[in-house]
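queue> pop job 88
queue> type: inverse folding (structure -> sequence)
queue> payload:
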């Protein structure tokens, strides 16, 4: 099967600035979402980082659901993901969706169950969800969205249990799993990526805290090269050049967990407020995503295009109810 890939589309980066404290200016229409393309037209790039690929990976994008609580610590191989999304689940805790494309580690974990929010996380890059299992309603919705599922409950290859205790002991060998999957390649970039290293304009910061709920806050520190969690559970922390905080609509998923907690569903389409940390610079922005399968388009508060510098990105996907959830130092 001919592999498909996306392309580099623009040659320059527009400098971006932080939003003023005064009233907002009238918003311009902003940039349009890039169309999908093929590798036959131009040189291939990594849709998850914007970096040039020496060759097309012989695998699809795997979206691995990883527990983010002390019960399953330590997380393993999070640092080898190309992009990570942190999302809210029941009880105010969070779960990670770690997206792997250029590397396929043999010990990603600990793997937990999928959520309907994963549709909007996986669809832009034709991702395949890897999970321990999931609620019947969620599995049906993800399958109806055309997203392949590989789960421990269904006996998918590459998933097993280590010496920990269930349900916090599932791991996946992505190389083994890849031997039994259809190699469906991405067709569009996750973000609009910049082609040079131009830095945006904005206040300089070295730390940030993101409050998902009364139960969970993620703390960050910029070490001069990358953003890393200071309260994470990973054996080796993910280093993000871009830390992107997005506020999205949230609704009830329509069922409860075994403990009786209602399960929330963050809607990863539409748009809203955003704050983007590019290196040590904070930029107030907005985001738009036309549908679950669309590229995320960022603009400054006054409507100017904002392209992310190429590199690894961590997305904090927050509910719009947590309007004051972010602080930066």
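queue> result:
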């Amino acid at each position: 099967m001919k592999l498909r890939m996306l392309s580099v589309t623009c040659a320059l980066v527009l400098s971006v600035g932080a939003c003023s404290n005064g009233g907002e200016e009238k918003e311009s229409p902003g940039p349009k979402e890039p169309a999908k393309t093929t590798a036959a037209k131009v040189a291939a790039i990594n849709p998850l980082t914007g970096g040039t690929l020496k060759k097309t990976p012989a695998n699809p994008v795997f979206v691995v659901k990883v527990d983010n609580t002390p019960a399953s610590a330590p997380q393993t191989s999070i640092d080898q993901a190309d992009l990570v999304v942190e999302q809210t689940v029941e009880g105010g805790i969070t779960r990670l969706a770690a997206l792997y494309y250029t590397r396929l580690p043999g010990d990603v974990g600990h793997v937990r169950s999928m959520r309907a929010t994963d549709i909007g996380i996986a669809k832009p890059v034709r991702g395949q969800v890897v999970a321990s299992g999931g609620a019947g309603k969620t599995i049906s919705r993800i399958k109806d969205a055309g997203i392949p599922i590989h789960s421990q409950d269904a006996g998918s290859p590459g998933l097993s249990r280590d010496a920990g205790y269930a349900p916090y002991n599932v791991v996946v060998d992505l190389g083994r799993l890849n031997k039994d999957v259809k190699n469906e390649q991405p067709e569009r970039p996750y973000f609009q990526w910049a082609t040079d290293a131009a830095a945006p304009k904005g206040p300089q910061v070295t730390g940030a805290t993101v409050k998902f709920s009364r139960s969970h806050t993620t703390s960050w520190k910029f070490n001069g090269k990358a953003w890393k969690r200071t309260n994470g559970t990973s054996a080796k922390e993910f280093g993000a050049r871009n830390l992107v905080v997005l506020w999205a609509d949230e609704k009830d998923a329509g069922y409860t967990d075994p403990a009786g907690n209602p399960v929330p569903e963050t809607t990863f389409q539409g748009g809203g407020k955003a704050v983007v940390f590019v290196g040590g610079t904070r930029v107030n922005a907005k985001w738009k995503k036309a549908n679950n399968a669309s590229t995320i388009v960022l603009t400054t508060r006054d409507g100017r295009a904002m392209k992310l510098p190429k590199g690894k990105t961590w997305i904090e996907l927050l509910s719009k109810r947590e309007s004051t959830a972010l602080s930066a130092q």
